[in-house]
Amino acid sequence: NWDPQALTAVSDEEVNHKEVASKLYYLRYKVEGEEEYITIATTRPETILGDTAVCVHPEDERYTKFHGKKVLVPLIKRPVAIIVDAYVDREFGTGALKITPAHDINDYELGLKHNLDSIDIFNDNGTLNEAAELLVGEDRFKARKLIVPMLEEAGNLVKTEDYMNKVGFSERTDAII
Fold it and tell me: Looking at residue 12, what is its pLDDT?
């Protein structure tokens, strides 16, 4: 857990989780070399810039034809593997999960298990760094507002839905972790 205001790590015990009204963004990733797409759902579309895989459940018949293939990360067109793991909840969102090991503990664990790269796109203060390739220097929340119309214009935004999200806040500063 990183507090971008205090510029320090905080333990799980120092994180307060609150229900926050947010959005769920459905984004489509083009399957490399094909005219097909895999759509994922995320509350943090700005973190796609650090994606290193898309994960599907091994028994999800919707995605078996994509096992072993790659998709292109929207906007930056970086090819990343489609990995298969039973961790994925087939009932949530689209049943496909973007994997950003540097910015989610569960994604980190999947990254270790599947030997994925970890691309840290954030500076300590919550702004995007050069590894993001886009929106460098922007605050993460401003980057979210800016990337959505970019995704829409590029044809990657399928839809958005209102969503109640459990968000971690620093006990020290009340900043979003």
Answer: 93
Instruction: Provide the CA 115 distance to its chain's centre, in angstroms.
Output: 18
Give me the sign of the Cα torsion angle 46, 13, 107, 131.
Answer: positive
In this structure, are residues 81 and 60 in contact, taking their beta carbons and an 8 Å threshold?
no
pLDDT band at 37, cuts 50/70/90?
very high
Cα 60 from chain centroid (whole Å): 21
Query: Residue 34 and residue 169: Cα distance in Å, rounded?
Result: 41
The tokens for 165 are: 């999200």
Q: How many CB atoms lie within 10 A of CB 17?
A: 11
User: What is the rounded CA–CA span in Å between residue 81 and residue 91?
Assistant: 22
Q: What are the tens digits of pLDDT across the range 94-109? A: 999 999 999 889 999 9
